[in-house]
Design goal:
Elements lengths: L6 E4 L11 H12 L4 H6 L2 E2 L16 E3 L10 E5 L22 H7 L2 H17 L4 E3 L22 H16 L4 E7 L12 E3 L2 H5 L2 H12 L3 E4 L3 E2 L2 E2 L4 H11 L5 E3 L9 H6 L4 E2 L8 H11 L5 H17 L14 H18 L1 E5 L12 E5 L7 E2 L13 E8 L2 E8 L3 H8 L4 E5 L3 H7 L5 E7 L17 H11 L2 E7 L14 E4 L7 H10 L44 E3 L9 H7 L16 E10 L5 E9 L5 E3 L2 E5 L6 E5 L2 E3 L4 E7 L8 E3 L4 E4 L2 E8 L7 E9 L2 E3 L2
Parallel strand pairs: 1-29, 2-12, 4-5, 5-6, 6-8, 7-9, 7-22, 8-11, 14-18, 14-19, 19-20, 20-21
Antiparallel strand pairs: 3-4, 9-10, 13-21, 15-17, 16-17, 23-24, 24-29, 25-28, 26-27, 26-32, 30-31, 31-34, 32-33
């Protein structure tokens, strides 16, 4: 652990180039492209789905099988979803093993870039083992709409947290010789009408929020591919938006990899190609095979120059060469039993690190080992841990699958990951009578005793392809929780949810845990935290509102009225969503700006132990970067993890996260920590007229806090900072 004199330093600018060979890779790719025919180049620029109608015969069975140029040592390659593990859509590859990692928000809740990179490495290992060259990972859209159907895939509402963790995960995947995407570029916060909705936001605010998250991820992870969103950005489709792709991504940021469309997200040949789209993906879901004969005709007609075709092919081959995906075609296999065992342990560690203790009255948790009787309540508690639906869903052979939702050519089941929480709690409490109840509020109330401790596992299923109409728990679970709280002596609620939910029963219960979608290790992690074998150490990666009236947009478009999915007839027109309402003040910054008190703030999380902050120093370092140095001491009697957070408010504007540290301490142990806010873009203003970032000269307020809540500030100081400039 180190001594109190050891200083743990946390910085947030990328420490090293994650793609140092890009120039050599591009030169080698250009040499290959120079030897290709036009037809061979064109074959690289689109990819069919790897299963279902139109799939090539040699496809491994995955999201896509792309055509190579075998005579030049570029084999065909396969691409798999997603950020949470290697998927097996509709069991096309049989019952192959796979590790289901916790949801993206769970990973975000760890605030742990080391765990993010380790999880990425494990996903890369499994993807490579089953024959994949591309993993459609890196889900990282900022959560602007807490009712969004895919929020569980993403990492949170803050640009710095999202960018750093997404970059770490991508880096881990690509270390294993597998390309990782980042997605969905950009400003893609909801599912309702996702194939035609326009996300509208002024450039300065877009640069300082959603785009900043992607920029940070590119700098930390060096993803070789970027997947564009289905949505329009300021009225132009993301996949044919020249400002977004050519201007920002490839121009300002110097991105040398390739841009692929989402599956069914291409709308043209010439317009998309000249705007910066390099590859049409899953073209069976598009209205036409745009990057086939239509693109060929566009070149022959002079609407797309051959130099652009060369550039598209070079970008794709540059990415493949950089991860060693040339030579022999990768064959289908499986990860080893040893690898799977290591990944199972890692998945449980990530899940345990992600669980957020939201409330713990009278220290009802952890559950005592000598507890005479524990009543576990909740649908599926005896079957498994809930997973989100959609293309990210990982289905190990023992997963329980129920009817869920369908989009286009895919059935999206409701998946439960084994083992079951009930079984893990019985293992963790061998001397306790553990009783299971699944019934109605009335049945539960009549079955409980006044001296019972009850754990209610509440669930809310979300899926790709549709948003949630509100933030309420489904299936009378609010009433169930209230009934249990009235009947039992002690009530603990565990939330297996995609994100925030309303809690009308909050003051009635003793403890609440946010357990997200925990994946293959979710049940073991939950049992460990409930019983105290592990201390809860997660922090909220997004704010929980007290009610929908607090949101920037109170009403949701009716999901039934507006097409969400590719390959389906369009209904509902072409709606536009005004994100200028909150602008760059996403999540906790919105609540501060509007003077609102949410249910739980971003960064909130309790522990089974206590921590003190000592000898706090706030000053600018020699480079002009704000730095906070402090001693964190575990003043309790249990081991635990503290996450001190640093927020900075510029002369004008809201406070925003500029740094944090994750500090594990034994009882009585102390550690000196230094948090350096070295990414000035997190508190700078983006200037459109003179493109770049400007730090305003003047007084900046620096806060050391346990969360974004104004009441959680532990130290604050005014720093006089000089003006600084940074390129776009």
């Amino acid at each position: 652990m180190g001594s109190e004199q050891d200083v743990v330093e946390a910085r947030f600018r990328a420490a090293e180039d994650p793609w140092p060979s890009r120039e050599q890779d591009a030169a080698a790719a250009a040499e290959l492209v120079g030897q290709m025919t036009f037809e061979e180049k064109l074959a690289l620029l689109s990819a069919p789905m790897g299963y279902g109608p139109g799939a090539p015969e040699d496809a491994v069975g995955s999201a896509a099988r792309a055509q190579g140029v075998p005579r030049l040592g570029v084999p065909a390659w396969d691409e798999s979803d997603a950020s949470l593990g290697v998927t097996n859509p509709m069991s096309v590859r049989g019952d192959g093993p796979a590790t289901a990692f916790p949801s993206g928000l769970a990973l975000g809740a760890t605030f742990d870039r080391g765990l993010a990179e380790a999880q990425g490495r494990a996903i890369g290992v499994e993807a490579r083992a089953v024959g994949m060259s591309v993993q459609l990972a890196g889900g990282m859209n900022l959560v602007r709409e807490p009712r969004g159907g895919r929020n569980f895939e993403y990492l949170g509402e803050d640009a710095l947290l999202t960018g750093v963790l997404a970059g770490a995960s991508v880096r881990g995947i690509q270390e294993q010789g597998v390309i990782s995407t980042v997605k969905h570029f950009a400003l893609n916060p909801q599912e309702t009408g996702r194939v035609m909705v326009s996300s509208d936001l002024a450039e300065p605010q877009l640069r300082a929020s959603d785009l900043l998250a992607f920029q940070i991820a590119l700098e930390h992870g060096g993803p070789r591919a970027v997947m564009s969103g289905y949505n329009r950005v300021n009225r132009l489709y993301a996949s044919e938006n020249p400002w977004l792709l050519n201007g920002v991504l490839k121009g300002d940021w110097g991105f040398r990899g390739f841009v692929m469309s989402d599956w069914g997200g291409t709308h043209s040949a010439a317009a998309a190609a000249t705007a910066g789209l390099d590859r049409q993906s899953g073209y069976q879901l598009d209205t036409r095979h745009f990057f086939g004969e239509e693109l060929e005709a566009a070149v022959e007609g002079g609407r797309v120059p051959m130099s652009r075709i060369d550039d598209m092919a070079v970008r794709i081959l540059t990415a493949l060469l950089s991860i060693g995906a040339t030579g022999e075609r990768r064959g289908a296999g499986a990860p080893s039993e040893e690898q799977l065992a290591e990944h199972a342990e890692l998945a449980e560690r990530v899940a345990a690190s992600s669980i957020v203790l939201l409330r713990n009255e009278e220290a009802v948790l952890p559950l005592p080992a000598d507890l005479p009787r524990l009543v576990v309540v909740g649908k599926h508690a005896d079957r498994g841990v809930l997973s989100g639906g959609g293309s990210s869903t990982v289905t190990p052979p023992d997963a329980v699958q129920e009817e869920g939702f369908s989009i286009a050519q895919m059935s999206l089941p409701k998946v439960l990951h084994r083992p079951a929480p009930l079984d893990e709690l019985r293992r963790a409490l061998p001397d306790t009578e553990v009783v299971f109840l699944e019934g109605s509020p009335g049945q539960v109330a009549s079955s409980l005793r006044r001296d019972d401790t009850v754990v209610v596992l509440a669930q809310h299923w979300a899926t790709e392809g549709r948003d949630n109409p509100d933030l309420s728990l489904q299936d009378e679970q609010d009433a169930l929780i209230s009934a249990a709280a009235r009947a039992a002596g002690r009530t603990v609620v565990v939330l297996e949810t995609p994100g925030p939910v309303l809690m009308p029963w909050l003051e009635e219960v003793d403890a609440v845990l946010a357990a997200w979608y925990g994946g293959s290790g979710g049940a073991g992690a939950l049992a460990a935290v409930l019983t105290g074998a592990a201390s809860p150490s997660g922090r909220l990666p997004l704010t929980f509102p007290a009610g929908e009236e607090q949101l920037p947009r109170r009403e949701m478009t009716d999901p039934e009225s507006t097409t969400s999915n590719p390959g389906e007839p369009r209904t509902g027109g072409s709606p536009a969503i005004d994100y200028d309402v909150e602008g760059a003040d996403v999540g906790y910054r919105w609540y501060e700006r509007e003077g609102l008190e949410p249910l739980f703030w971003f960064g909130h999380g309790l522990s089974y132990t206590s921590f003190s902050y000592e000898d706090v120093e706030i000053a600018a370092d020699d480079a002009g970067d704000p730095a906070v140095t402090l001693t964190v001491r575990n003043s309790g009697d249990r081991a635990g993890v503290e996450i001190p957070q640093v927020y900075l408010a510029p002369p004008e504007g809201t406070a925003r996260l500029v740094g944090w540290a994750r500090v594990a301490l034994d009882p009585g142990q102390a550690r000196r920590v230094r948090i350096v806010a070295d990414d000035l873009r997190c508190y700078a203003r983006y200037d459109v007229d003179d493109p770049g970032w400007t730090v305003e000269e003047g007084t900046h307020r620096v806060r050391l806090a346990r969360s974004a809540a104004p009441g959680d500030v532990l130290a604050e100081s005014a720093l006089e900072l000089g003006a600084r400039r940074l390129r776009p």
